[in-house]
Amino acid sequence: MAQPLATHHHQPERLDETLEFLKRTRSELRTLRKVRAWVDRIQVFDVNGDYFEVLGVGYTHDDVREILDAVNTAYRPATIQQPCSAPFKEFKTGRRHPWAEDRVM
Amino acid sequence: MATANDHASMNKAHDRDPHNCNSYGTLVDDGYKKVSLPVLDVDDFNERIIRAYEEGTAEKSLPADLSVSRSIVPAGTATLRDFSYVAPEIPAYITEECTGCMDCVTLCPDTAILGKVVGENDWQARMDRLADDDRELFQKSWSEPRKYYGGPKKKTGEGGKFSIIIDPSKCKGCAECVTVCDDDALKMVNKTDGLMDDIQRTHRLFKEFGPSDERYINDNLLIDMMLKEETHVYVGGAGSCAGCGEGTALRMMCSATGAKYGNDWGIIAATGCNTVYTSTYPYNPYLVPWSNSLFENAPAYAMGLRMRWDQKGWADKPIWCIGGDGAMFDIGFQSLSRMLAAGANIKVMILDTQVYSNTGGQASTSTFMGQNAKMSLHGKSISGKTERRKEIAQIAMMHPRTYVAQTTCAHVNHMYRCLLDAMEFDGPAVVCCYTTCQPEHGVADNMATDQARLAVDTRAFPMLVYDPRKGATIKERLSLQGNPAVNDDWWVNPKTGDAVDFIDFCRSEGRFGKHFDKDGNPSETLVSARQERLENWRQLQELAGVLGKKSAPRKASASPPPAPQRAASGNGNGRQVGLPSGYQAGAKIRYEGGEGWVDGVLTSVTPVVMRLADESEIRISADVMKEAIALGLVALQ
Questions:
Q1: Measured between CB atoms, which of A85, A92, A99 is closest to B557?
Q2: Residue B118: its H or E element
Q3: How far A36 CA lies from chain B's nearest CA (Å)?
Q4: Residue of B nearest to A65 (CA)
Q5: For residue A105, how many other CB atoms are within 10 A of its CB?
Q6: What is the DSSP letter of B378?
Q7: Can you tell me the mean pLDDT for B526-552?
C-alpha cells in the first residue's frame, strides 16, 4: 500500500487536535470513500486510494466514535469496539446532509 | 442576425471546441440526425439555436420560432453541449491496472467514459497512419487486458487492444467510474489547461480511430454491450446532477434496447427529473423519438401511441414509458394500472428515487418509512414519514399477465436481463429500478452504485423477477435470485458475522440522519421501519415459496481471513474477492451464456477469469461474478 499523504499521532487527552487534523481531509483528499479502523490506527481513504492516517488510536479506543463521526463514517456505535478476527474493520463514508433537509415543502 | 453560414459547423472543430469533442457520434463520428418534418430544419437548429445557447447569446438574440412553439428538438442535440467547465477534476486512465471489466463505461451516468477494442494488427495499421505526436499521445490510452488481448491472442494469434477514454465535454466529475473500478485503473486528477488539451486531443483521435472490432466483443457478456456504437442511444450532455442514479438506468435501458432494435423504438416520458434533464431546451440526449405530456398520463399516452404504431404496422417496435415516483406510484398510478390491465405491449421503466426529486424532494408513496422528506419532515412530534412504502412491483404483479422486475444498476447482469426479457415479453412489462437521488438521499456524487447494492443487501429494495411465462402459480413465476441469503431474514456479513439490516442502510444516508442520537442509537420509528422492511421481504419470500426454508449452517472460520495480497502477476487487484465457497482458482464450473450450459474452469479469482470448453475466455470483475453466480448463470460442476 502507498504511504499516507499525512499522518497524525493521536493523544488520548488531545482529541481536538486529531479532529482538527481530520478537517484537512476536506481540502487535501478528494471525495472520501472509506475508513479502515485497525487496532492501533485509523485510515481515511478517498476515491483515488490516497489516505490520511491517525496513529495511536484504533477501534477498541473510546475516542474512535468521535473520530469516525468526524468523517461521516457509517458504522454501528454499539459494536465498534468489539474485537474481530479480521485485521481491520472497513466502513463507507459518503453520507451528506440532504438538500434543504429542514424545509417543510 | 448571424446565420448558420457565418460560422464553422457546430459538428466540426471551431473556436469554442478546437478538437471537436462536442460532436455527433459517441464512439465514432456521425452527422446530424435528419428528419423529414416541415416544421423542423435540423441543420438550422443545430447551427443556429444550439450555437446561440453554447455561446450564451440565445436569450437575447434568438427569436421565437416554430421549434420552440411546438416544443420540438432534434435527436441527439445534447451531444453538442460542453460540460468541460463544470467539474475541477476528471478521471485519468491507468492502463496497466485495467482488466477490461467495463464497469466504468456501463455505470457512468453521462456517457462520458467510453471503451473500444481493436485487433492489434488493425490497431498498428491505424496507429501508423497518425502523425508522430498524435501517435505518441494516443498510445497511452491503450491496454492489453487478458480479457481482450491475452485470451484471444492464445486462441487466434491476434489480441485485442483495449482503450478507455474520457469525453471531456460530457464528464461532470462525479467519480462514479473511479468508485466502481475494482482494479484501481482510474484516478481523479485536477484539470489543467495542458491536461485538458491532451484529453480533448485523445478523445478526437478515439472517435476518428473507427469502431470496435466485433471479433473481440462477446455477445454473451451483456456488460460488453457498450463497446458498440448502436447501443449509445442516450448520448452525453443531459442536464442531470453529477452522479445521478437515473442517468445510468436510462443509459442501460437505451443500450439494451438499442442493441436489439437500433433506433427503431420510442419513448413516452412522464414529467419529472428525467424529462427535465433530457429536454432542457435545446438539448436532447436521445437518438430515438421521445415525447412528454404531463406527470400523470404517460401510460395512457403510450397506449394511444401503441395503437397508432400498431395501425401503421409497427407492432414489433418497442415503446418504453418512463417515469419516476410521482408518475408511476402516485399521480400517474391509475394510468399505469389501466395500461397494465389493458394488456398493452408497452414497457414501463420506473426510476425509483423514493421522493419527488424534480420538485425538491417531497415524500411519495415510495418513500421509506421514517425517511426525512419534504411534506414528511422529521420533527419533534413526527419523525419523518409514518406510512409504509408502497411496493409497486407487487401491485403490478397482481395485474393480469404482466412481466415485472425490480432491479438496480449495481447488478448489471440482472438489470440487463430484466430489460431484455421485458422487451421479449409479449405484453405489458414493468421494470422498477432503484436510483439514487444524491441531493435528496444525502449521499455523495460517487455513491450511486454502492448505495444501490446496499439497498438490495439490506432488504430496503429487494430484487425480483416475476415472469408469467414461467408457470401457472406465483411461486413458479416469482424469482428472488440475485438477493443475498434468499432463505434468510437478513444477509450476514461473513467478515464480521453481523446481520446487515435496514438500519445499516439508514446509517449510510443523510435522509435518515436525524433518527440517530448522539450515541448512534436508532429511533423507535427507524426500528419500526426495519420491521416493515423485514415484513415486506418475508412477504416476497412467501410469494416465491422460500419462506421457512433455511440456508445451510455457515461454518465458523478456524482462523482470521488472510490479509489482502497483491497478485504475483497479471492485472491483479490485491483484494479479497469474496466469491462463494468452492469458487477458487482451478474450480470446474459451467456457464450459461444463453445457448445452453458450457463447461469450463475458473483459472483465476484475482481477477476473475473463466476458460470455457469452447476455448473462449471470460474475464469479469468479482462483483459481476458474484452476481452471475447468484443469478444461476455460473455454477460449480
A1: A85
A2: strand B113-119
A3: 13
A4: B519
A5: 10
A6: B
A7: 92
pLDDT at residue B615, rounded to an integer: 66
Model confidence over B574-585: pLDDT tens digits?
234 468 878 888
Q: Is the pLDDT of residue B239 over 50?
A: yes
Q: What is the CATH number of domain B89-230?
A: 3.30.70.20
Residues 6+ apart with CB under 8 A from B376: B363, B367, B382, B384, B385, B386
pLDDT for res A102: 85
Partner-chain residue, chosen from B188, B498, B563, that has the shortest CB–CB distance to A30: B188
Helices vs. strands in chain B: H and E counts, helices first: 23, 20
Cβ density class B349-386: b for 16+ within 10 Å, e for less: bbbbbbbbbbebbbbbbbbbbbbbbbbbbbeeeebbbe
For B375, left (φ over 0), alpha (ψ -120 to 50), or beta?
left
Of the partner residues B441, B520, B557, the one whose CB lies closest to the CB of residue A98: B441
Q: Which residue of B has its CA nearest to A84?
A: B496
pLDDT of residue A69: 95
β-sheet bridge partners, residue B634: B591
Average pLDDT over residues B401-420: 97
B573 Cα to chain A: minimum distance (Å): 12
Are A30 and B188 contacting, i.e. CB atoms less than 8 angstroms apart? yes
The model carries a pTM of: 0.89
Q: Which CATH class is domain B244-544?
A: alpha beta
Nearest Cβ partner for A31 among B442, B446, B521? B446
Chain A positions with Cβ closer than 8 Å to B: 30-33, 47-49, 65, 74-79, 84-87, 89, 92-105
Instruction: Check if B528 contacts A (Cβ < 8 Å).
Output: no
| Cβ–Cβ < 8 Å for A67, A85 | no
Distance spanning both ends of chain B, measured CA to CA:
72
Q: What is the least distance, in Å, from the CA of A18 to any CA of chain B? A: 19
pLDDT confidence band for B570 (50 / 70 / 90): very low
What distance in Å separates residue B150's CA from the closest CA in chain A? 27
